[in-house]
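[Discussion] Sanity-checking designs against the backbone

I'm trying to build intuition for which residues belong where. Below is a structure token string of 499 positions. I'd appreciate it if someone posts a full sequence so I can compare it with mine line by line.
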């Protein structure tokens, strides 16, 4: 008998109708620092034919958001269905090889959930959620170069979080160590020193401009292998691009009309194309759900001003960029392709958090979900079948500085006076309202602060935010505990719970 399906928001998912041999393969491709205007079907000046194909043959989410406007926390949200600010990471990202894994031992992830429900699982690419290295005697957390890592000993890697196979790197391409990891071991001893912005330990043969090529090759190999098995597979492919360093490989240099950033976008799209081609060659294209999204908006490292002058707006007309609480920081290009289920060329304006991926996979896999798991995730499976089904309660976003915003319907309340990130003003001048309220239907570029004119909306959203903190979840269900006290101060000194 099939398992009872338990929804994260009602603990009772409806029957999905998949037989054991009909469950789809699931692939999530996660680009790095890529905005809504970086794809050519949204006006981007660098051709992205594979992503355009996904939009033409699949579903485009026009109102999808990362849980944070920077990458470590947004990756946590995708994989766990839980907001990062419930953990010890309440601002910024991991920057040191000494940062311990953010996902706790035995914490449920999309990978562990699917593995328990009959899936093969793999992660190929950039992890950036902490690797549990073993260090040489006398090492210190102040050493951010990675030279104190004992690369001959096994580490705690994604294989501790439900992934049966891992090939990739610790973090971004400007963060050492610069060495590939396969499963629990570095593939080589990082005896050299190399530098891409930050200097650190490196495998002498490691070159940043080869990562996309290697990730594409490994992804295709995995598809070729697992397509021959009876079990479906889940593959998470977090790419290193177009995040800095902007290093397109030799074959892609000069391909775009807008410089190296455009070249890197095109190479990123090429990886997506390699995955789609492998699915077709193996005859599993029709029943594979391929999701594409990015971990936050475009970074200023791309030189947004120069690109805009060339007619390419990385974050579209949205206000802000990576790091910010404004839309340009966390509204991201998001696509779903599943020919067996999704009618091509569709769009949905469902307010979607990428944390919703967890509940969606649970529903597709007919998985039972514990009350403590995926507490901020609401399935969009019904939206994949019918894009007009847009029901979703409020979602929460977070900036690099740890500032919050909550979105419900057309209203977005930012619990800060400025960007909360790198865009000026980071904080509004004295005398301006302490918070910002925007009507995104009337003002999608967030120009008019309606905080003072709508106290009832402010109070409603503020109380909702407090409830999400106090209850340890934003979905209906048994109250849960946050990992640490949540740093949030509301009106009249109201604070979030300590647990």
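Best answer:
Here's mine. Compare freely.
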């Amino acid at each position: 008998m099939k398992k009872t399906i338990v929804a994260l928001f009602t603990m009772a998912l409806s029957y999905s109708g998949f037989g054991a041999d009909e469950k789809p393969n699931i692939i999530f491709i996660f680009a790095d620092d890529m905005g809504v205007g970086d794809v050519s079907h949204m006006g981007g000046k660098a051709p992205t034919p594979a992503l355009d194909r996904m939009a033409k043959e699949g579903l485009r989410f026009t109102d999808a958001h990362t849980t944070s406007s920077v990458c470590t926390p947004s990756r946590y949200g995708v994989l766990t269905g839980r907001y990062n600010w419930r953990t010890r990471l309440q601002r910024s990202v991991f920057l040191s090889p000494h940062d311990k894994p953010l996902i706790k031992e035995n914490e449920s992830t999309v990978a562990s959930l699917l593995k328990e429900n009959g899936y093969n699982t793999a992660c190929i690419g950039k992890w950036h959620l902490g690797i549990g290295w073993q260090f040489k005697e006398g090492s210190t957390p102040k050493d951010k170069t990675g030279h104190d890592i004992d690369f001959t000993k096994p580490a705690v890697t994604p294989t501790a979080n439900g992934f049966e196979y891992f090939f990739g790197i610790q973090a971004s391409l400007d963060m050492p160590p610069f060495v590939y990891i396969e499963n629990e071991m570095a593939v080589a001893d990082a005896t050299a020193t190399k530098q891409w912005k930050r200097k650190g330990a490196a495998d002498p043969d490691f070159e940043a401009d080869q990562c996309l090529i290697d990730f594409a090759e490994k992804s295709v190999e995995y598809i070729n292998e697992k397509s021959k098995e009876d079990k479906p597979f889940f593959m998470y492919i977090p790419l290193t691009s177009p995040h800095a360093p902007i290093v397109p490989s030799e074959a892609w240099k000069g391909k775009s009309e807008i410089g190296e950033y455009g070249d890197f976008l095109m190479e990123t799209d090429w990886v997506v194309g390699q995955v789609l081609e492998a699915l077709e060659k193996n005859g599993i294209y029709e029943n594979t759900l391929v999701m594409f999204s990015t971990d936050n908006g475009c970074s200023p490292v791309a030189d947004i001003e120069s690109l805009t002058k060339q007619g390419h707006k990385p974050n579209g007309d949205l206000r802000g960029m990576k790091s910010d609480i404004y839309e340009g920081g966390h509204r991201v290009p998001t696509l779903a392709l599943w020919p067996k289920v999704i009618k091509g060329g569709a769009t949905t304006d469902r307010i979607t958090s990428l944390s919703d991926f967890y509940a969606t996979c649970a529903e597709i896999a007919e998985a039972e979900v514990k009350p403590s798991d995926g507490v901020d995730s609401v399935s969009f499976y019904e939206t994949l079948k019918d894009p007009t089904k847009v029901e979703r309660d409020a979602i929460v976003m977070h900036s690099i500085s740890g500032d919050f915003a909550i979105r419900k319907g057309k209203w977005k309340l930012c619990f800060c006076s400025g960007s909360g990130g790198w865009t000026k003003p980071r904080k509004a001048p004295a005398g301006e309202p302490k918070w910002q309220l925007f009507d995104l239907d009337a003002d999608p570029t967030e120009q008019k602060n309606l905080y003072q004119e709508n106290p009832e909306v402010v109070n409603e959203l503020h109380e909702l935010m407090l409830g999400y903190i106090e209850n340890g979840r934003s979905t209906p269900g048994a109250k849960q505990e946050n990992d640490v006290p949540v740093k949030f101060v509301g009106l009249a000194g109201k604070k979030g719970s300590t647990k």
